[in-house]
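Section 5.1 Outputs to date
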Amino acid sequence: QNATVDLTGDSNVDAQDNLKAIQDALDATLGAGQVSASLDGDGLVLTSASTGAAASIQISSDGRAARTAAGSVDTSAFNDLTDFSAASIDFDLNGTAVSVDLSTISVPASGPATLVADIQAQVDAGLVSAGLSAGEIVVAQDSSNRIYFSGNTIAAGESLSITASSNNVLGLSTAGAIAGLDGFGLAQATSSGEDANAATVSFVGGNENGGFNIDLGNGSTFTISAAEDNMASSLGIAVSDGSQNLVKTGQDVAGTINGVAAVGSGQRLTGPEDNDAYGLALNITGDALGKRGSVNFTLGLAEQTQRFLEDLLGANGLLGAKESGFQDSLKEIAKEKADLETRMEGRRASLSRQFTYYDTIVAQLNSSLDFIKANFKALNAANN
């Protein structure tokens, strides 16, 4: 549909008028309210009034190619006596004349099993002769085995008509041509509904993933089409169509506990870490600003035990400090051991050098002694 007049009463001819024209056509064809038309962004959405898994909408075609009227002859009765001699068809395809010679077609006695393909081959030859491409005119049969022709482009402005024919064995007419129409971009498929399951409603607090959740139990999704202002601050629910100026969010509560800024999450105010109020959570349910009074609380045995163990076993706890001291002592001992080994090695080298020196002197003295002894022996021998 393409509305050319205002159908919605807003004095404008726009997409809403097109939508109204589509809805009127659906109501006239299927009955009022059986299928409703709406827009999802710029796309058309069709929704049936029937619900549940048994309900479905089937899109068998979207848009329309230009086509001729079907012939008046049931071709299932054709046989070898069917005479195509001197048969021809003249077409006008978007202003281009196309002549098709059918005189070479013959039907076997067994029947017209290949008749559509045979005619298509002749049509393709005529298209090529006219400077067009094969396949721009498509041969088809309706449920009564009557031949008709269509273009291969689905678009408004496409036209195909029969301008003349001879030996009109197919019973074709120059009247009744149908122009092409644009499609809506709908997939040719069947969409089925779903049976409803028990919905669950829950609220999860938190700054990151918190919110009011509705689960329909079957994977379906929905959008909020209307919401009061206080629903945004109370439950985080607001009208959502993707526009940032329509997104409304609540605010976390803010305040101090024990004089220190606390952590706010929704209506809950929690004491910060490294503070005596750590672990204390207060629900702030009123609107008034200012002091809310004082709270006295005593840590239970489990909490005291946990904090004691944290102080004892934590990275900066007593055991951690002891372990750190032992590690430092082990490092100091290792250093002293290394220093002692260095000194002992130096002392060993010094003693080794002294031993070598004195060993050399002893060797020299022994050599001198041997020399003196030899001389005394020589003198004694000479005197005797």
